[in-house]
Structure formats: structure tokens, C-alpha cells
Specification:
By secondary structure, the protein is an all-alpha fold. It contains four helices and no strands. The chain has helices at residues 2-16, 21-28, 32-39, 47-57.
Length: 70
């Protein structure tokens, strides 16, 4: 499931940088509960929230065209 993959990626990067959930939430200007839900795959974040988190974590959001099958 995509939401759990996104959450796991954010959690991994946050831990890599040594940032706590409350601190990341504060830096990104989002609610700690929102971040918790996202990291556990329970949330359905908007692109705005994902962009805020990506910016703080030094990441970027990409949308690419899928390669054709076959």
C-alpha cells in the first residue's frame, strides 16, 4: 500500500536525521498526530503536508510516467 510506503520512507529519513516526531511536526508546521498517522500508514496526507515534510527532511516529491509493460 502506497501510504505505508510513504510513511516508512518519512520515518526512516526522520530517524536518519535524528529528529523526533514532535520536532519534525513543529518544523513542518503540522500536527504531531498527523505525522504519527502518516508514519504508521493510517493517514491520508495532502500533497501540501507531504511537501512540507519533504522540504524539512531534504527530500523531494516526484511524479513520473510509468514505463510501458512488456
Amino acid at each position: 500500500m502506497l501510504s505505508s510506503e510513504i510513511g516508512e520512507t518519512i520515518k526512516s529519513r526522520r530517524k536518519e536525521l535524528g529528529i523526533t516526531q514532535p520536532h519534525l511536526a513543529e518544523l513542518a508546521g503540522i500536527n504531531t498526530n498527523t505525522l504519527y498517522k502518516l508514519e504508521t500508514g493510517l493517514g491520508n496526507p495532502s500533497l501540501a503536508v507531504l511537501n512540507k515534510l519533504a522540504e524539512v527532511l531534504g527530500m523531494e516529491i516526484k511524479i513520473e510516467v510509468k514505463k510501458p509493460l512488456g
